[in-house]
């Protein structure tokens, strides 16, 4: 049995999802020879620490009742530098302007020789090359499947499952909020503002939905794909971006009458990275509805490979983090 000592930095929805999945999959992990012990859980107010392993069920309960797990005044970087462990599960909120706490956590982890698995897009959008080079210099593993598409595998699909194939392009729907809004606008013949209000009431859209509806979230995910799969060195400023705020019910209905739906499509290749509403034939694999995500990977040898799945959600995103953990440490899969 191999014991992996790890920390969970960020205990919002995704961090809590990771804790739930580790509890759910404890027996599975043991069957493949892994015992995962979480030595610290950190939220915005502080940390719970136990070098022998914290009680994740207790952390989840306290987060729900008290709003925090904090028993000690420690930040993520404090935990990384002072508590011996192997792996940092970095699930702090995305900040695409500065990288936020996530960037500092990742750099500190690599500087102390730790592996990192993250769901946080911000640092990879801003400092991908620096992070990769710092991890390589430290001999650390760095995996980030959960940053693009939630539970839907794209990064590992292209780099590992399709190894040896030259990837020509990747295109798809990478934001469930936009997909929900466009789907409902067509179904209800309703305005953008009406369906945006509905999606906010349902918790599908954020209180400030700008990142989603202006195409910024999709653009950030394309940056990660461009750098991780196509070997580019780009940032958000290299992406052509148009959001969905100008799409009208009339445009959606006219497209539908002509056999098409309008979807916010992100596309990346070595030549161009862009996000915009585009016409998609009704029966095309990219014409998924609701909050689903979909990506089509165009390869040299295997043609187009299309995957569809939930692009968000705590448990769904945690499933990608679990997959990365098993890829690094699993011995009998």
What does this structure look like?
The protein is 42% helix and 23% strand. Strand 11 and strand 12 form a beta hairpin. It is globular and about 60 Å long. It has helices at 13-24, 26-31, 56-66, 76-82, 100-111, 121-138, 155-161, 176-188, 192-201, 210-213, 216-229, 249-257, 314-329; strands at 2-9, 34-43, 46-49, 87-90, 115-118, 142-143, 167-173, 240-241, 260-268, 273-281, 292-299, 303-310.
Name a few traits of the molecule.
Dihydrodipicolinate Reductase, domain 2; single chain; globular; 12 strands; six-stranded mixed beta sheet; Rossmann fold; 333 residues; 13 helices
List the helices and strands and how they pair.
Layout: E1 2-9, H1 13-24, H2 26-31, E2 34-43, E3 46-49, H3 56-66, H4 76-82, E4 87-90, H5 100-111, E5 115-118, H6 121-138, E6 142-143, H7 155-161, E7 167-173, H8 176-188, H9 192-201, H10 210-213, H11 216-229, E8 240-241, H12 249-257, E9 260-268, E10 273-281, E11 292-299, E12 303-310, H13 314-329
């Amino acid at each position: 049995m191999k014991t992996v000592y790890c920390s969970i930095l960020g205990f919002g929805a995704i961090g809590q999802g990771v804790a739930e999945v580790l509890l759910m999959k404890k027996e599975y992990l043991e069957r493949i020879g892994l015992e995962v012990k979480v030595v610290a859980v950190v939220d915005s107010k502080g940390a719970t620490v136990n070098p022998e392993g914290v009680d994740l069920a207790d952390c989840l309960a306290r987060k729900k009742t008290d709003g925090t797990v904090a028993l000690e005044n420690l930040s993520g970087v404090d935990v990384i530098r002072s508590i011996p462990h192997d792996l940092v599960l970095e699930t702090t909120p995305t900040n695409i302007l500065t990288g936020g706490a996530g960037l500092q956590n990742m750099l500190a982890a690599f500087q102390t020789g730790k592996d990192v698995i993250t769901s946080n897009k911000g640092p990879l959008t801003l400092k991908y090359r620096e992070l990769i080079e710092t991890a390589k210099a430290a001999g650390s593993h760095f995996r980030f499947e959960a940053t693009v598409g939630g539970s839907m595998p794209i990064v590992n699909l292209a780099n590992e499952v399709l190894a040896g194939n030259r990837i020509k392009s990747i295109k798809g729907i990478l934001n469930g909020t936009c997909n929900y809004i466009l789907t409902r606008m067509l179904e209800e013949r309703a305005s953008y503002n009406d369906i945006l209000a509905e999606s906010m009431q349902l918790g599908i859209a954020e209180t400030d939905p700008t990142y989603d509806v202006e195409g910024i979230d999709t653009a950030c995910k394309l940056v990660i794909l461009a750098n991780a799969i196509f070997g580019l060195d780009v940032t958000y400023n290299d992406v052509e971006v148009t959001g969905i705020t100008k799409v009208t019910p009339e445009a959606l209905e006219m497209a539908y009458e002509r056999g098409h739906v309008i979807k916010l499509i992100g596309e990346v290749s070595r030549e161009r990275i862009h996000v915009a509403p585009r016409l998609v034939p009704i029966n095309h694999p990219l014409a998924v509805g609701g909050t689903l995500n979909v990506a089509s990977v165009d390869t040299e040898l295997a043609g187009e490979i299309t995957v569809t799945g939930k692009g968000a959600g705590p448990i769904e995103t945690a499933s990608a983090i679990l997959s990365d953990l098993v890829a690094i440490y699993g011995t009998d899969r």
